[in-house]
Amino acid sequence: MIIVSLIIVGLIAIIALIDAVPLWSDWFGRIRIGRYQNRKHWESSIVRVGSEWLNKTPKIKVTDNTRLVFIDMLRGNYTKSAIQQWQEAALLLGLSEQLKEAKDDTIQSAINQYLNTKFDSNGQWREKPAHVDGAILAYAIMKIDHVDPDRYKQALDYTWNMIREHIGEDGTVLYRKGMKDYRYVDTIGFICPFLVTYGLKYKADECIQLAVKQIQEYEKYGMLERHHIPCHAYQVKGKLPLGLYGWGRGLGWYAIGLIDAWQELPAGHEHKQALTDSVSKFARSALAFQRESGNWNWTVTRPESRADSSTTATLGWFLANAAKIGDISQECSKGANSAVDYLMKVTRRNGAVDFSQGDTKDIGVYAMLFNRLPFTQGFSMRLIAKIRGGQ
Prior knowledge:
The protein has 391 residues and is mainly alpha-helical. 57% of the residues lie in helices and 3% in strands. Strand 2 (233-235) and strand 3 (241-242) form a beta hairpin. The radius of gyration is 21 Å and the shape is globular. The model has no long low-confidence stretch (mean pLDDT 91). GO terms for molecular function: unsaturated rhamnogalacturonyl hydrolase activity.
C-alpha cells in the first residue's frame, strides 16, 4: 500500500513539474528583459539564438493550456508539424538575410546541418509537407545564397504540385483541403513568395499568375473598406468576411506574401506596378495602426489589446522593404526603425524575442498566451539585417 501511495505521489509530482517548469522558465527568463541599448549587441544576441533554434526549434503549443499539459501531449495536441514548418522557415529566412551582409561560418554550418536533416540525397523532402504551410519553407530554401536551388528541385517541384492540388473551384488556393469554402489570409504568406520565385526560376508563368490572383482576390473580398486591413478569412460563395478585421498576425501574413512577391518580380514585369500600388496602399494602412512605442497590437485596431512581437517583426520587415518606394520612403523607414526599437525592449537577456501571440485555434479563435516564437525570432533577424544593410 505504501508503495502504491509513493507511486501516486511521484506521478503527481511529475505532472506538477511538467506544468511548473515552463512557467518558472518564463518568469526567470524575463528578469532584466529589454535592457539592450546597442543594436549591434542586440542583433548578435538574436542571431545566436536563431542559429541554435534552427536545428533544435522550440515546439509551439497548439493549445493555451498551462495546466495538466501532459494530457495534451498524450493526445498529440501539444504541437503539430505544419506549425513547426513556418517557424523553421522564418529562422532560415532570417539567417539567410544575415548572410547577405557578412559571411558567418556558424550560421552557414547551422543551415547546412538543417538541410541535411530535411532532404535526402536526391533533393527530395525526407518528410513531405502535406499542407500549404510548407511552401514558405520551400521559399526559404530558395533564398539561401550559398545553396543552388536546383539541388532541391525535386522538393520544389513537389511543393508546386502540392499547391496545385489545393486550388479550388474559384482558381485560388485552399488553406486546407477540408476547408474548400474559405480562403485564409495566412495562405498569402505561405504560398505567394514561393510561387513567384519558383515561377521565375523555372519559367512557370502559371505560378506567378496564381500568386497575383491569390493576393488580388483577397484584396477584393477580404479587406476592410476604407482602412484596407484584412479579415482572418472570407467565404468563397457569399464573399462574407470571417473572423476578426485587424488580427495582427493576419496583417503580417498578408504583408509577407505581398512584399516578398513584389520584391521577387523584376522591374517591367506585367504585374509589378499593380503590386507596387498594393504595397503603397497597405504601407499607409499599417503605419496608421502602429503604436507610439513602435509596436502593433495583436488586434491592431484596439489600443487596449496586448502588443504582439510577431506582428511587429513582420510589419517591420514589410515597411523596411516598402521604403524603396519613393513617396512613402521616409515614413516606412521610420516605422521599420521604430519596430526594431520596440523589439529590443521585449528581448530576453539571452537573446530570445518575447511576447508573441501563440498559434491561432480557428477562425476568430485566437491565442491569449504571449511567449517566444521562432517565427518572430526569424523576422527580427531579417528586419535588422535589412536595416543595417541599407534600404
